[in-house]
Design brief:
Helices cover about 70% and strands about 5% of the residues. The chain is mainly alpha-helical.
Length: about 500
């Protein structure tokens, strides 16, 4: 109750809290799937290219199996993404009713991208063993572009909500004279888009590599696991320092374009120079900060490369136009956790790079592979924290400086919304539980196939290649039909 009072204004409608919680839960659930949807097609195609270029059956086998995971994940992502699309209209009719004509084009682009990506994934899955290798690979090349197009649509909408432009207001306060190009390419679009895309590549790379890092820790150190680890981890490792620079850039953009949000992220109360940096800590309603680690002048230095840089404080605007102390603390903690995880990933990349440069081999330390296994989960946490920073830091605005969240919320009774929230939790538990079961069954089927091919457990999983004639199937042997055929039901083959 104490937290609720501090999260909401005293005169906030009763529907606001359940609407927020429902939207936050569905968004947090959906975003777990987004990195794989955006970046796994590219990682898969890199492995596919390696397999074709070097005539590497192991690489082709990994690419084919990843493509099956990509298809299952995409199906789940479509479901959770569709729920989010409906929630915009059901939970926030004030937003869509007034501003939909301005920024709704982003959602239209995302819908077309989803449709295109579904078609391309279907073709790519169907092409294994049915198309010529080169033709099959070329037909898969548009997949990353379709994934990036979907990210383009949703980031265009979100960046507009942060820095709205491309319209004028009539005397009644309604938007007119919409300029679609300006509404899409807002000041925050470029920084948000590239920061998001590289974050997806980093996260997907570490998640996929983490699976094989766990295999390494369990003693599976054959070429299949080494290659399955090396390619995605190297892609993520190359992208990690890029992401660090992009993160620094977007923080400066927020400092310039959304100074009050920046004040919330850094829990800066009064506008001043020589502002200290707080690592964690809690902001109180009177402006004091308790806990955390205080580093004198660092916030001003980070914001403008000089301790004399003036940083806008929360008190620069009325209390009704800024995040309250609890919201600022949430945004600040999310931001610090995201930056902290990113810094740890850079250290992991340095470890990996130094071993490779000195010895031209993979690290052999169990500590390294344990850290690599944790990197995927850590990256997902960082992605969640990034969205928390973006959305909570913008409060109380749903459209920055143009519409408050309380003005956009539905008039549906709060009790109904709480019931909907409970039902959504149950449904999502079933969906994600089913997703996990499917992935585990696919893993077990592939492992069994690897043990049956070549005669030695795990040593020669590449014995059955994705291209060329299928191996003969003994009459009446149903198991061989599923496993000897390179796990037909698990790889999208029919």
């Amino acid at each position: 109750m104490h937290t609720t009072v501090h999260l909401l204004a005293a005169d906030a409608p009763a529907q606001l809290l359940p609407a927020r919680e429902l939207m936050a839960f569905t968004l947090a659930s959906h975003i777990i799937l987004v990195p794989m949807g955006v970046a796994l097609p590219l990682i898969t195609l890199v492995m596919h290219y390696r397999g074709l270029r070097r005539n590497d059956a192991t690489a082709l086998l990994l690419a084919r199996r990843w493509s099956a995971v990509m298809a299952v994940q995409f199906a789940i992502g479509v479901v959770t993404g569709t729920v989010l699309s409906f929630e915009f209209g059901l939970l926030w009719p004030g937003l869509m009713g007034k501003w939909g004509d301005v920024f709704g084009v982003g959602f239209g682009v995302e819908a077309w991208a989803f449709f295109l990506e579904a078609v391309l994934i279907a073709i790519y899955l169907y092409g294994w063993r049915r198309l010529k290798p080169r033709t099959h690979f070329l037909l898969g090349l548009p997949l990353p572009a379709a994934a990036l197009l979907g990210a383009f649509g949703i980031l265009a909408a979100n960046s507009w909500m942060n820095t709205p432009q491309g319209f004028t207001l009539d005397p009644q306060g309604n938007p007119v004279d919409v300029n679609v190009w300006k509404a899409i390419f807002t000041p925050m679009f470029g920084p948000q888009y590239w920061h998001f895309v590289v974050a997806m590549l980093v996260t997907a790379g570490y998640v996929v590599a983490g699976v094989y890092a766990v295999g390494w820790l369990r003693g599976r150190r054959d070429r299949y696991h080494r290659l399955g680890f090396t390619v995605p981890f190297t892609i993520a490792a190359v992208a990690t320092p890029v992401q660090l620079m992009l993160g620094d850039s977007i923080a400066r953009q927020v400092f310039q374009k959304q100074p009050v949000k920046f004040a919330a992220m850094e829990i800066v109360w009064e506008t001043d120079t020589h502002v200290p940096e707080y690592l964690f800590g809690r902001l109180h309603p009177d402006g004091t900060v308790s806990g955390g680690i205080k580093i004198p002048q660092l916030d001003s230095i980070l914001a403008g490369f000089s301790p004399d840089t003036k940083v806008t404080g929360l008190t620069s605007v009325p209390a009704s136009d800024r995040p309250n102390a609890t919201q600022a603390t949430i945004a600040h903690w999310a931001f610090d956790i995201m930056v902290g995880i990113g810094s740890l990933l850079v250290l992991l990349v340095l470890w990996y790079g130094l071993i490779w440069l000195r010895h031209r081999r993979l690290p052999r330390s169990k500590w390294f592979y344990g850290s690599a296994a944790c990197a995927g989960a850590g990256s997902l946490v960082a992605v969640e924290c990034g969205w928390i920073t973006t959305e909570v830091g913008r409060q109380p605005w749903i459209v920055y400086q143009n519409m408050r969240v309380a003005e956009a919320v539905t008039s549906t009774r709060s009790t109904t919304l709480w019931i909907m929230f409970g039902l959504v939790i149950v449904v999502y538990l079933l969906i994600f539980g089913s997703f996990l079961v499917v992935l585990l069954k696919m893993r077990d089927r592939w492992r069994l196939a690897d043990e049956q091919t070549g005669g030695r457990p795990v040593e020669a999983p590449e014995s059955v290649t994705p291209y060329g004639p299928r191996p003969p199937v003994p009459a009446g042997d149903a198991r061989s039909s599923g496993d000897g055929g390179s796990t037909a039901s698990g790889d999208g083959e029919t």
